[in-house]
UniProtKB/TrEMBL annotation:
The chain crosses the membrane at residues 12-33, 45-69, 81-104, 110-129, 141-161, 173-202, 214-234, 240-263, 284-301, 321-338, 350-372, 378-399. Residues 407-441 are annotated as: Disordered. One of its GO terms (cellular component) is plasma membrane. It is a multi-pass membrane protein. This is O-antigen/teichoic acid export membrane protein.
Length: 441
């Protein structure tokens, strides 16, 4: 193994550890709620997690992914990236807090949890962007540090609320988000203070960022819409079971996300070498497939005694869903490296269109499945839809001819490169191969 390959494997290992730690905070809270609260609160907490996930996807798509595929920005303009995060985070916090206040005025039990989430949202997004900045800088140990801090503080927060008798769902959400707020302060130690160039950075990268955001929102928005539509056909308990089952698959999907993120970061730095790009894609698919198989074995054959120990009474409504969830995770493995190859080589237009098409198909399948068979029907339909989306990604790569083996237009020292994302940036005075059918702008 070459030194470069060994370094890439070490980075991938750390990114994987980080993604697992990131999912553990949500799973730990899920397990705590399952044991300490009624099933209805279990469903409410799942909805709070879903709102947080939508916000997280927006910031990952708009800011974090852009930093990943423009590593020069992560290396030299981290303060501008954090500045953009703060500005957008304040806006997101205001919107979420206003929604929480409106729910409180309507005497909804969701009001307090949503308000607490809204007040914390800016710092939680800073924490997440800080993780991806560390990965973009090829220093994933920094991301591991941030998630380890959150998880450790979360344990302290949960134990503290129990000792003080603060047993409402709002206080649990406060412990969960508060630990993330404190952990987010370490981002400033790792990356420095936010600067006022955030809007300038967003404007420069907007042609890439908005496509990335549409791509990400098509996934999270579909998940939110599907969860809402499921309530028309299913009971709140069935919706909670659906969310719990998908969260139980989170460690495996976290690994798949890790290999995809690591591959995109590496491809962004080596996008002119087709063999290197394809090497990262193959590695991502292989690792994701192995993890998907292990996930299926663990979840499908998990003994009831272990399931009850983890989820308490909620296990009885979740256990029938494990096979469908496991098959969905396994089918996702075949697309792990493909999206990374398109994004890492700045083919964001192709990635955006494929994301929108495939996620709409998955969402439609899930709604039909929920109408047909509650949570179990929705998850089986999701597995079918995921298989269709995997085919979509392969078709996009083959049809465009740009997947694992991209070529960039030739430029000279006096030229500027303008990619599909519309970015203009200077490049070295060395030619690269011109892809068939491409012409100089």
């Amino acid at each position: 193994m070459t030194a470069q390959g060994g370094s890439a494997n070490r980075r991938l290992s750390l990114v994987t550890v980080d993604q697992i730690l990131s999912s553990l905070s949500n799973i730990a809270a899920l397990i705590w709620v399952a044991h300490a609260f009624e099933p209805i609160d279990f469903g409410r907490f799942s909805l709070v997690i879903l709102v947080y996930t939508v916000a997280q996807v927006v910031f990952r798509s708009l800011i974090s992914t852009t930093a990943i595929v423009h590593p020069e920005d992560a290396d030299t303009r981290a303060g501008d990236i954090l500045g953009a995060t703060v500005v957008l985070g304040i806006g997101a916090s205001i919107l979420c807090s206003a929604a929480g206040l409106a729910l409180i005025a309507a005497d909804s039990a969701m009001g307090g949890p949503i308000l607490v989430l809204g007040l914390s949202l800016t710092f939680l997004m800073l924490h997440d962007v800080g993780r991806y900045l560390a990965i973009a800088k090829q220093r994933p140990a920094g991301a591991v540090t941030l998630d380890s801090l959150w998880f450790g503080l979360l344990v302290v927060g949960f134990v503290g609320t129990e000792q003080l008798g603060l047993d409402s769902l709002t206080w649990l959400i406060a412990a969960w988000t508060g630990s993330g707020v404190v952990a987010s302060l370490w981002v400033f130690v790792q990356c420095g203070a936010p600067t006022g160039g955030g809007f300038a950075w967003l404007r420069e990268r907007w042609d890439f960022s908005w496509r990335s955001m549409v791509s990400g929102l098509s996934a999270s928005g579909t998940a939110l819409a599907t969860a809402s539509l499921m309530t028309l056909f299913s009971s709140p308990i069935a919706v909670a079971a659906f969310r719990a089952a998908t969260l139980l698959g989170a460690p495996s999907t976290a690994v798949q996300m890790a290999v995809g993120t690591s591959a995109a970061a590496d491809i962004a730095r080596e996008r002119e070498d087709p063999r290197a790009v394809w090497r990262h894609v193959r590695r991502a698919i292989l690792i994701a497939t192995v993890v998907g198989v292990l996930n299926l074995v663990v979840l499908v054959f998990l003994p009831d005694v272990v399931g009850h120990a983890v989820l308490g009474e909620a296990w009885d409504i979740v256990e029938p869903l494990m096979l469908a969830v496991s098959l969905k995770v396994l089918l996702m493995a075949a697309q792990s490296g493909l999206r990374a190859s398109l994004i890492g080589t700045h083919r964001i237009q192709a990635a955006m269109v494929t994301d929108v098409v495939s996620i709409v198909l998955v969402g439609a399948c899930m709604v039909v499945g929920a109408a047909w068979g509650d949570a179990e029907g929705a998850l089986w339909a999701m597995a079918v839809g995921t298989g269709v989306s995997t085919v979509c990604w392969w078709v996009a790569v083959i049809w465009k001819g740009r997947g694992p083996l991209p070529d960039l237009p030739a430029r000279t020292a006096t030229d500027e490169r303008e990619g599909e994302d519309g970015d203009r940036e200077p490049v070295p005075a060395r030619p690269v191969r011109v892809a068939p059918g491409k012409h100089r702008a």
